[in-house]
Amino acid sequence: MASPGDHRWLVVCLTVLTFAVANGAEIFLEWHVAIDTTIRPVSVDQPVITINGMFPGPLINATTNDNVHVNVFNDMDEPLLITWNGIQQRLNSWQDGVAGTNCPIQPGTNWTYVFQAKDQIGTFFYFPSINFQKAGGGFGPIRVNNRDVILVPFGKPEAEFDLLIGDWYQRSYKDVRSMMNTELLAYYSPPDMMLMNGKGPYMNPLAKAHESFTVTQGKMYRLRISNVGIAWSFNFRIQNHRMVVVETEGSYTNQITVDSLDVHVGQSYSVLVTADQNATDYYMVATPKMTNASNTSTLVGIGILHYENSTTPANGPLPSGPDPFDRDFSINQAKSIRWNLTTGAARPNPQGTFNVSNVTISQTFILQGSTAEIDGTPSYTVNNVSYLTPDTPLKLADFFANGSGVYQLDTFPVDSVNNGTVRGTFVATGNHRGWLQIVFKNNLDVMDAWHLDGFGFYVVGFGDGNWAPELNSTYNLYESRCSLHCSGGWTAVYSYLDNPGMWNLRSQQLKNWYLGEELYVRVYDADPNPAKERPPPGNLLLCGKFQPPPLPPPPPSPSEPSTAPPPRSSAPPPQISW
Ligand SMILES: *[C@@H]1O[C@H](CO)[C@@H](O)[C@H](O)[C@H]1NC(C)=O
Ligand SMILES: *[C@@H]1O[C@H](CO)[C@@H](O)[C@H](O)[C@H]1NC(C)=O
Ligand SMILES: *[C@@H]1O[C@H](CO)[C@@H](O)[C@H](O)[C@H]1NC(C)=O
Ligand SMILES: *[C@@H]1O[C@H](CO)[C@@H](O)[C@H](O)[C@H]1NC(C)=O
Ligand SMILES: *[C@@H]1O[C@H](CO)[C@@H](O)[C@H](O)[C@H]1NC(C)=O
Ligand SMILES: *[C@@H]1O[C@H](CO)[C@@H](O)[C@H](O)[C@H]1NC(C)=O
Ligand SMILES: *[C@@H]1O[C@H](CO)[C@@H](O)[C@H](O)[C@H]1NC(C)=O
Ligand SMILES: *[C@@H]1O[C@H](CO)[C@@H](O)[C@H](O)[C@H]1NC(C)=O
Ligand SMILES: *[C@@H]1O[C@H](CO)[C@@H](O)[C@H](O)[C@H]1NC(C)=O
Ligand SMILES: *[C@@H]1O[C@H](CO)[C@@H](O)[C@H](O)[C@H]1NC(C)=O
Ligand SMILES: *[C@@H]1O[C@H](CO)[C@@H](O)[C@H](O)[C@H]1NC(C)=O
Ligand SMILES: *[C@@H]1O[C@H](CO)[C@@H](O)[C@H](O)[C@H]1NC(C)=O
């Protein structure tokens, strides 16, 4: 696209400033990301990734259309990228913070992300996206609040609590990462504990602390629950209390009351809880799905809902939930969570303005996750293809060299399983402004959750057995979300590809993702008008094939003649004129 000396590049840089002052407030954050071995969440020495000393990291509390500037200082000993799970990075995949869009922030350096919560509301979270670091922490909550002019479809809660729940290894994430190259651990490496906001189960001797929320009798609270874990789905419930599901990843839902809620890796929900019981303490539990965990296992996350002034500790058995192996419970619950079509969200017009039941499908991807041994290393695949992360981000390659030499466009088998397993850097085209149907098939025996950066999914169908095109007659609009689960069957989603960029489509299961279960979808608009897709930011980092220009040589000292040849690099360095 742009080549050195291309004057469009200059125009593009000048427009950067104009965009930064779009509507919404400016939020400035400075984050120091470090490794701390004194946190000891499960009473063992292990590296924990903290942000400004906190684990989990600080809340990003934004309102629709706010611009968030996060100056990230990498004080760790390895490269870092942070991704903003669910923030759609409208027209701006440059800020997405995954290996295909950004050069990593090197240790000892800092880099400022600037992104807008454009036309979004809801509950999300951020996490480190490369090097398996999510298993070491570095995650934290994101709230995008309604603008004042748009009514929230429920009463104002007394308070809101962010509740990040996830499975956790007792080992160092670095050890787990290096063990991913051995077959046994790559395919079967169960985590050890379920943490709630970085804290272990109540009363467990291995837990240094437990999570507790204080409520006042008679008041209503909003819990923003996310599964920030590595592999396990969980079922969440609160002793003697029911929950009203109101929001999921940026969409208000029809309000349904549940006793317990299944949350798969990468998913986020808001529930309302009314403190309508006697003023004692109650258990909040998160039990893993698809495994037998007894109530004394560290795999059961346990926190406390504490009524103000209560002196009675939580007692009685832990609240029981559905059979963890009951797949139908999960599927039926997911089906029961529907969009509220009449409420406004990021905009005043109702969410249901967009009726997806009558859209023209432009492309269908049929994707199936699997495992394979490729060149002697354990791998996860999509359609028998395992993604190989190049040193050069795809987005950089696109900008400077039209992708050439870094990835292959459109050789990925989007609707069939490749005959034989391969590893490579394949990118699929998503038709700009077309409706993409994706059918996820899961033949793995675990829940798999998928996520497409840049877009929401409209979940339209679930089923067992094989998917066939005619099954679209059974579709129904369930919910809009950025990730979903499916196991032993298929899930069909629609996405409207109106957001040009390079977008990561991945398994949210950390080891599957790390070992190749991902691809990129390139949504391309040939028009260089920056209103269509934003130009690279002024602080664009270079790496891989596109190295920063060498520093000018120091002036020759007067006593020595300068004989050194000028520095050379294999690729001509891009001109950086900003
Ligand atoms: C988040 O922002 C909203 C809107 O500005 C404000 O009302 C609320 O108090 C903030 N919450 C926190 C925890 O900062
Ligand atoms: C690094 O931090 C400094 C000091 O806050 C800031 O001025 C600079 O813009 C940051 N660098 C990048 C690349 O964001
Ligand atoms: C609540 O407290 C009242 C009065 O102490 C008692 O009669 C009742 O059994 C309690 N309810 C529960 C569910 O514990
Ligand atoms: C789970 O526990 C039940 C009851 O103890 C047992 O029948 C079942 O085989 C167990 N399942 C697995 C996968 O361990
Ligand atoms: C808790 O105790 C304090 C001090 O006695 C009192 O002011 C407050 O009203 C009590 N709260 C409730 C909910 O009873
Ligand atoms: C755990 O299970 C045992 C046996 O079912 C039961 O006696 C005990 O009360 C339970 N403990 C909790 C905290 O639920
Ligand atoms: C949908 O949202 C509207 C507000 O626009 C609210 O009055 C209504 O109760 C909601 N419907 C359901 C089923 O939650
Ligand atoms: C479906 O869409 C087509 C073209 O967009 C339109 O002409 C037709 O009226 C729509 N049908 C329904 C039932 O909404
Ligand atoms: C969406 O359109 C279909 C026909 O295309 C119609 O049957 C359905 O009722 C519409 N749904 C809503 C919520 O308007
Ligand atoms: C798959 O590849 C093998 C070996 O190259 C070949 O024999 C076979 O016919 C291929 N199958 C299909 C369905 O293309
Ligand atoms: C996927 O690759 C494996 C290993 O080469 C092969 O055995 C299998 O048949 C392939 N799957 C399909 C559907 O072709
Ligand atoms: C369902 O798929 C068939 C192709 O198999 C297509 O002709 C039809 O238009 C689709 N219907 C809808 C509502 O998308």
Low-confidence stretches: 1-22, 560-578
Shape: globular
How many H/I helices? 6
Small molecules in complex: 2-acetamido-2-deoxy-beta-D-glucopyranose
InterPro entries: Cu-oxidase-like_N, Cu-oxidase_2nd, Cu-oxidase_C, Cu-oxidase_fam, Cupredoxin
Keywords: Glycoprotein, Signal
Pfam family, one: Cu-oxidase_3
Family: Belongs to the multicopper oxidase family.
Written description of the protein model:
It comes from Liquidambar formosana. This is Monocopper oxidase-like protein SKU5. Pfam families: Cu-oxidase (PF00394), Cu-oxidase_2 (PF07731), Cu-oxidase_3 (PF07732). This protein has 578 residues and is mainly β. It has a domain at 351-523: Immunoglobulin-like (Sandwich), CATH 2.60.40. It is 8% helix and 35% strand. It contains six helices and 33 strands. The protein has helices at residues 8-20, 173-179, 183-187, 327-336, 394-401, 510-514, and strands at residues 26-36, 48-51, 60-63, 67-74, 82-85, 110-116, 122-128, 140-145, 159-168, 193-196, 212-215, 220-227, 234-238, 243-248, 251-258, 260-263, 268-274, 281-288, 301-307, 361-374, 377-382, 385-387, 408-409, 422-424, 426-430, 435-442, 448-452, 457-464, 479-481, 483-486, 489-496, 501-507, 518-523. The strands form seven sheets. A six-stranded mixed beta sheet has the order 10-9-12-17-14-15, with no helix packed on it. Strands 21-20-26-31-28-29 form a six-stranded mixed beta sheet. A six-stranded mixed beta sheet has the order 23-25-33-32-27-30. A hairpin with a 2-residue loop joins strand 20 and strand 21. The longest helix is centred in the first third of the chain and has 13 residues, at 8-20. The model is unreliable at 1-22 and 560-578 (pLDDT under 50). The site of one 2-acetamido-2-deoxy-beta-D-glucopyranose has 4 residues, from loops. One 2-acetamido-2-deoxy-beta-D-glucopyranose binds at residues 361, 469-470, 472.
